[in-house]
Amino acid sequence: MARSLERAWEEKLRVVEQVEQDYDRWCREQPLVLGDDDRDALWALGQNLPQVWHAITTTAADRKRMLRFIMREVILDQTKLKGHVWLKIVWQPGATSEHTVQRRVHTYNDYADLDQLRQRITQLNAAGTMDKEVAQVLNQEGFTAACGCRFQGETVWLLRTRWGIAPAKINGIAANPPRWPDGSFSVQGAAVALDVTTQTVLTYLADGLLTGRQLRKGQPWQIDLADDQIRDLRARLQRTRRPKKEAS
């Protein structure tokens, strides 16, 4: 009985193998011929491929099958180009195409366009653009930070510090004028107006006797100083100076 079943099984396997061989031979002898309707349908599908790809009814498995249908192989290399992923696609008909995609990196040592980034920051800084505004320009021009996020003013500050680029100042490299175009005083101008040293002006700012602002840390002070405030502070100085002279 066992030998009879074994022989029957072997015969069935031979039949299946013969059928598969006949089918393969038939496929080779009967090449696929597309009719006009078939070509039109495939063309329409190709035109709507993005819509099909993003359709909510298209599953991840469907997308994988679509990729396998048009791609034979994808080769990736993260070391060929600095800060990029190089990829080569072998399409099903045998054609190939090469592409590069900027990748996220952990440090600016691996940043793709570091020289271009440094040159652009240097240009904007030389034009008197503050770090925050530099970051906005970089984002508008398509630059991305090393981690793939948007630039912030703090990021620009860190890069400037690393590269030894001095901060932009509202008066460039020139000496501070006594008064700025908006009418506010510089530290030097306030010192002359009050007849004190620049260090005294800074002390007044720290103590709240004077009010001023900086575009950011390290920028020149723009001090609001009205005429009546100048008179009051000068009178205050005279009162504090008189006892010292009398004591001497």
Structure commentary:
This protein has ten helices and five strands. The chain is mostly helical. Among the domains are: 57-103, no CATH class; 108-163; 187-243, no CATH class. A three-stranded antiparallel beta sheet has the order 1-2-3. Strands 4-5 form a two-stranded antiparallel sheet. Helix 6 packs across helix 7 and helix 8 crosses helix 9. The longest helix has 28 residues, at 2-29. Keywords: Plasmid.
Distance between the termini: 134 Å
Mean pLDDT: 83
Rg (C-alpha, Å): 38 Å
Beta-strand content: 5-15%
Any idea what the shape is? rod-shaped
Give the biggest sheet: 3 strands, antiparallel
List low-confidence stretches.
none
How much helix, percentage-wise, in residues?
40-55%
Report the total helices. Answer: 10
Assembly type: single chain
> Strands across the major sheet, in which order?
1-2-3
How many beta strands in the DSSP annotation? 5
* Helix-strand makeup class: mainly alpha
What is the element string, with H for helices and E for strands?
A: HHHHEEEHHHHHEEH
Keywords: Plasmid
